[in-house]
Amino acid sequence: MAFFSTEGLSISFGGLKALADVSIDVQRNSISAIIGPNGAGKTTLFNCISGIYRAQQGRIIFKDKEIHRLPPHKIAALGIARTYQNVELFAHMTTMDNLMLGRHLFLKTGLLSGATLFHSRSRSARDEIANRDRVEQIIDFLELQAARNEFVSNLPFGTQKKVELGRALALEPELLLLDEPCAGMNVEEKQDLMIWLKDIQEEFGITCLLIEHDMSLVMEISERITVLNYGRKIAEGTPDQIQNDPQVLEAYLGGDDRAEN
Amino acid sequence: MDMKRSHYEDIRLFSSRVVFAWFLVFAGVLVSYPFAASWLGKNYYIYMANYMAINVIVAVGLNLLVGYAGQISLGHAGFFGIGAYGTVLLMTKLQVPFVLALPLAGLAAAGFGFLLGLPALRLEGPYLAVATLGFGLTVTQIIGRWDLFGGRQGLHAPPLALGPVTLAGDFNLYWLIVPTAVVMTMAARNITKTKVGRAFVAIRDSDVAAHTMGVNLTYYKTLAFAVSAFYTGVAGGLYAFALGFIEPQTFNLMLSILFLSMVVVGGLGSIFGSVVGAMLLSLLNLKLASVHTLPFLGPVLLQLSESWFTVSGLPNFQYIVYGLIMFLIIVFEPLGIFGFWIRTKIYWKSYPF
Ligand SMILES: Nc1ncnc2c1ncn2[C@@H]1O[C@H](COP(=O)(O)OP(=O)(O)OP(=O)(O)O)[C@@H](O)[C@H]1O
Ligand SMILES: [Mg+2]
């Protein structure tokens, strides 16, 4: 049994089939990628996995548990975290508070103990401090020190992407979904990201599933690649297999008419 | 600003000695104020302070809902009424002592807040505004028609006994109302610095992201309504005694709008702003209610009003002013007084340059 899998996932919006019978398998502690032209249904697949959309057909199984009927916060509690293509940060919070929200499921402070935060040994203060220590490690890991107390809306897009990655890591997920993690990053930031992803996989033992348009990064980092086109899975395999797949070449070269949406 | 501060420093109530010193000064003023006022023979000033403190509680509670959690409510006069009537009725009909009746009435308001929060799970913006508006109007109607609530005649507040002592008069009430306001404000500030407050803001900024980070939207949205209603209910309970008498007409839509203006004027998402906004608008409300007695301006406004708006004088003059203030704030300084304060602080920090 795979660590994570979808079976025959289908969803349509109006007449448009955004996902048609998509089945994928992800091995524990691997890095896998999903690629495909614009509008192929990649983000829609992530939205189904994290519970934002409910697939009309098919099943999603995570560690032998069916999760496709669960609401997003329960899916998060099982250990699936994600980032967003266009960054969904909490714009009026600092980097620190964004990451602290990532600790939401670990914090035990309720309303009353929070309201009575009057000294450093109160229950809520100890809870906050312990979790801040954890967040501090993530800040060090992603080199976000300079952004710690900045409101995230004032940060450049590349840094916002990093904050969002940090927030997802703060949830201590077992499966991390990354939607175009290096969009808007410069070459140097992309290099860093590549190294971090390796660390996330090897040191933290987190399984990564990423959507990415940057083919050199995808080919270098992922063990398995799934290709979507018009909501269908048209190929899957190792980077070598994918690079030489005639259907994939066809989708990328012939599908240009939809590239602009 | 990348200096690593000790974690407790980030969240503690008094973020520096300077803040603590200011708090002591403020506390000193609060303690000496009623003595100074009664020494001057201005008992009315103490009533004003009580009235302000009550509105501070409402504004702080409402800001948790509107400014932090990003929900709207045009029905908070309803919670205020539930708190006021609840406290008085618990004491007169069931002989519950005040120390229990007030929090119980607050909890009753919170219960209604929870119920009102349920539609908020599906409604947004204008739709939620209408739903909460309906709630506020319903409360006024029910209170006005039910004999238990004294009907249109209203109810008198019973004597207020705190254990062996009976609090009567503005001077005595001050020592109940103002400390309650201070404690509840500090508690609200602590909430905003911890898990629950962060979840509120997260829902406001991006409910999708909050949801996928494990925030239970149903729980936290209804909690925001309940907490906010609790604050407002407690304030209503205190109001019954500050005024000595309550009637259904008090808890009307205009009161809900006044509450909302306090929050907007002070600054959405700022506890400090709510305190200042509530104090300013309370003062303005008391002053404007008697605007027709002003020399020169009074008669002119009265005439203007009689020829253009109404034949009955200036009963709604306040609301025209609030409307104008809200409009100006939203256009020129969306962060309210808090935004103004932040900009002045930045200005003075870089002053000579
Ligand atoms: N909520 C929705 N309502 C209607 N149509 C939608 C919705 N979400 C996605 N779609 C449609 O489903 C198709 C797949 O969209 P999706 O965002 O999954 O593509 P993608 O593969 O992530 O593309 P890109 O590379 O541009 O991000 C698109 O045609 C899109 O317009
Ligand atoms: Mg996408």
Structure description:
- The complex is a heterodimer of chains A (261) and B (353).
- Chain A is of the alpha/beta class and 261 residues long.
- Chain A has two domains: 168 residues, Rossmann fold; 77 residues, no CATH class.
- In chain A, strands 6-7-8-3-9-10 form a six-stranded mixed beta sheet, sandwiched between helices. A four-stranded antiparallel beta sheet of chain A has the order 2-1-4-5, covered by helices on one side.
- In chain A, a hairpin with a 2-residue loop joins strand 9 and strand 10.
- Chain A is globular.
- The two termini of chain A are 37 Å apart.
- In chain A, 46% of the residues are buried.
- By secondary structure, chain B is mainly alpha-helical.
- Chain B has one domain.
- Chain B contains 15 helices and four strands.
- In chain B, the strands form two sheets. Chain B has a two-stranded antiparallel ribbon. Chain B has a two-stranded antiparallel ribbon with strand order 2-3.
- At the A-B interface, helix 2, helix 3, helix 4 and helix 5 of A face helix 1, helix 7, helix 8, helix 9 and helix 10 of B.
- Bound molecules: adenosine-5'-triphosphate (ATP) and magnesium ion.
- The site of adenosine-5'-triphosphate has 12 residues of chain A, from strand 2 and helix 1.
Which structural class is indicated by helix and strand composition of chain A?
Answer: alpha/beta
State the helix count of chain B.
15
* Secondary structure tally, helices of chain A: 10
Mean of all residue-level pLDDT scores of chain B: 85
Tell me which CATH architecture of the largest domain in chain A applies here: 3-Layer(aba) Sandwich
Any low-confidence stretches of chain B, pLDDT <50, length ≥5? Answer: none
Helix content, binned percent of chain A: 25-40%
Instruction: List ligands, each type once.
Output: adenosine-5'-triphosphate, magnesium ion
